[in-house]
Amino acid sequence: MRRLFAVLLVAILGVTGLSSPAQARDKHRVSYDNYSITLDGKRVLLQAAEFHYFRLPSPDLWRDVLEKYRAAGFNAVSIYFNWAYHSPKDGVYDFTGVRDVERLLRTAEEVGLYVIARPGPYINAETTGGGFPAWLKRVPGRARTSAPGYTRAYRDWLNHINPIIARHQVTRGTGSVLLYNVENEYQANTDAQYMEDLQTKAREDGITVPITTNVCCDAGDWASTWGSGQGAVQIPGVDDYPQSFDCANADTVWGPWGEGVTERIRADAPGFAAEYQSGAIDLNDAGYDKCRELTGPAYMKYFHKNNLIESGATAFNYYMGFGGTNWGWLAQPNDVYTSYDYGAAITEARQLTAKYDEFKRQNYFLRALTPLTKTDAVAGPASSNPALLAKTRTNPDTGTQFVLLRHTDRAALTDDSGTLDWATPDGRFAVPVRLIGRDAKVLVAGYDLGGQRLAWSTSEIMTHEAIAGRDVAVLYGTEGTAGATTLRYSSKPRVTVLDGSVSSTFDNGNLTLGYTHRGLARVLITGGGRRPALLLIGTDATAATFWRADTSAGPVLVRGTSLLRSASVSRGLLSLRADTTEATPVELFGQFGRVVVNGRPLSGRATSSGSVVGVLPGPERVTLPALRGWTSRTEGYEAQPGFDDSAWKVADAGLASDDYGFHSGAVWYRGRFTATGTETTIDTNAITGRRGTYLVWLNGRFLGSAAGGVEADAEAPQNPDPGPGHFAVPAGALKPGARAVVSVLVENMGNNDDWTVDDNRFRQPRGLIRASVGDTPVTWRIQGAQGGEDLVDPARGPLNTGGLYGERHGWTLPGRLDWPAANPAVKPGVTWFRTGFTLDLPRKQDTSVVLRFPGTPPAGQRIQLFLNGWNLGHYGGSIGPQTDFVLPAGVLLEHGANTLALAVVADQPGTIAPPELVTAGTQRGGVTVTPVTGR
Ligand code: GAL
After folding, report:
1. 690 and 545 both lie in a single domain
2. 894 lines ligand 1 (CB under 6 A)
3. Is there an atom of ligand 1 within 6 Å of 126 CB?
4. How is residue 303 annotated by DSSP?
5. Which atom of ligand 1 is nearest to the CA of 753?
6. Is the terminal CB of the chain with fewer CB neighbours within 10 Å at N or C?
7. pLDDT reported for residue 25
8. Which stretches make up the Beta-galactosidase domain (predicted)?
9. Is residue 795 situated within a structural domain?
């Protein structure tokens, strides 16, 4: 009954906009129409990038990344909440330490970002189980449907996460959550009741912001069924990955998966690109630099701008802004390895890239040009050259036009010029344009640029700010190309070219400036019946040197720092928090007296541009210690026949490890039998997920290894046996009537996802699924991570460790162990290496440290690396191409003693090539990082 009431209430609300009790408490109102989302009636252009807190186990660094988002001009962050990350066991949840999402939401609000909250329950995201906790595999009832078992389980998750999200909604006045996303690419489209139930539950739990979902693949289908009716969300969004994930062919790929134009599912809601590609998973092991190239500035210019004008969407979320690390056993192993760098604008080591600059140029434009929040498609200017297309949208209230200039043939690489016959709100103009290759530009006409009137420009606008009674605008264009800008004045203004070469004519109220985009030209315009204007006309590169921030005394523009984190003005004192990668000149535009940067006074001098220039120091040199003093120890006790396994669980209900509460990493099996002497092979089959392996011993003798499989497909008889292994029993090894022990070490890599809403895939077991020694009966015991689902180390959590002997005995943990000096030779089995190093990195400086293995990842060795007990990655030839492993500050003690432990699982004899510490970047500035705690 209660549910029926809630359903009715939601239905009524959807139709009439009546207030619910929850809404009655709301201090702010989020609404929307077909153009855009509104907050208290004000239109918002939502520009988000995706961030996964669970891929950065250092809460202080969340602030670092979110400040970088904000500085790039994003006004929102989209966040998946990962059920598996918080729940080791049915009914057990943890939201503390690196899992403190309350703190995350607070940080987002403090930084000034809206949040798109995406609690699933299913999230995909290339994370183990697609976010489903491993224990869910044992809960009956098809996942992602209304099946009762699954419903009970997911409601418990939502009971925990929804109230946290609800507390941080914009509507409450106590947070910045602006949208709530149910499910993820639910393209199976099978259970409308389930989609409806998720929304009812959210409303019951106090979610009052609009509800969205991200639709994949065939939005058309979805529109015809759930665009309205049961299960429909208020603002459906669409996922687009036009560049595919073919990073290996980054230099030739151009939109194999389509134009990337966000489809509209509901006519009464704004267009929403719920996930728009900005990076890629590295399916071909090409390395993430190639993924960054695949989705680099050229792609961003064309696809983002094309989508903006073709779709008229006003809400975007770029996947990913920062990818992070699949630390521990977080990865869904079939598609990704440890690094989830993603080729994103901000690297896994938190460094800014050329993609970041392109985001900044585009985002600042979207923020400044508010008429973009309400546009209709209209016929645009005619182009004299059919190779050039000019698609146009206009704001019906202001008349402002946005003209997308691109090649008609989207693959064209030619350099074409032409003239636009452009009927702007300020008159008709013949405007010369030029476009090189796959570039795309959004040109603006009929725009009130602060106190100026822009008739049109062939430069793109990055931003404009009202500073100290004048308009300061940053325009830019392709280096070396001609540009022109026409502004309207009632009388001839005075034009002073402060820098560069700019011509000007005044005719019939039109001031036209002509120039070539090169360096940074500066033009001061005074008189003409308007307040003064300073035009800063640059190239892509010089435009990217600008940063903007708001203060209580108006906006500031800062040029020259490598990042601007925040700015504030108090009693004329401008305080900046900014990073520098080197000693650098800096230029500031704003209304202020004195200046401090990172707490230190800046001595500056005034310029003819009305700015202040000074010099900022760079970072101190960083020297990292060499890693010396390695010690080592071999384990593999479990392979020995005399090992005491009496405390192990008896595996009498099948061999799958999940059934015994062992969900992550290594599991050991020991099978005892009385030999007949006729056994010739040990036949095994294991499912580990891609990149997994298992090793087999008989009476302590190593027999060999095999690759674990991904899935046994009951419906595909050709693959009942995904990870087969056949091991010959050495002659004479089994005497008739003698007791014998077969030991198997299985390295599970994580669970399959459930992208296709296919229980058979998600529920695939892990560990041995079959093992036989001829026809001889064997009794099995199993051992995995210490405590199983009852975590012994809740701070590091359910995905940090597996069941290696060393993991169970604290060999991963900080401190000294009395081991002998390392022998670099490894034999098949498990060998541990440990060393310590002390750091005292420069303070007030952000140094990103990476552990680098030399050469290419070795075949035959798989190495887990633990820093101070935190499992930060998996290295090896059968795992992936990765050689550099990010050691995030917080886990890495920047001022103290660190312990590094390597667990090497080898399936052949070899030698360890020890890794070294290297710097992935260092900047003066950064955020203060406190150590994360563990056991
Ligand atoms: C989408 C999905 C995301 C992520 C992405 C690829 O289909 O919604 O969670 O998996 O693909 O990285």
Report:
1. no
2. no
3. yes
4. I
5. 10
6. N
7. 77
8. 371-546
9. no
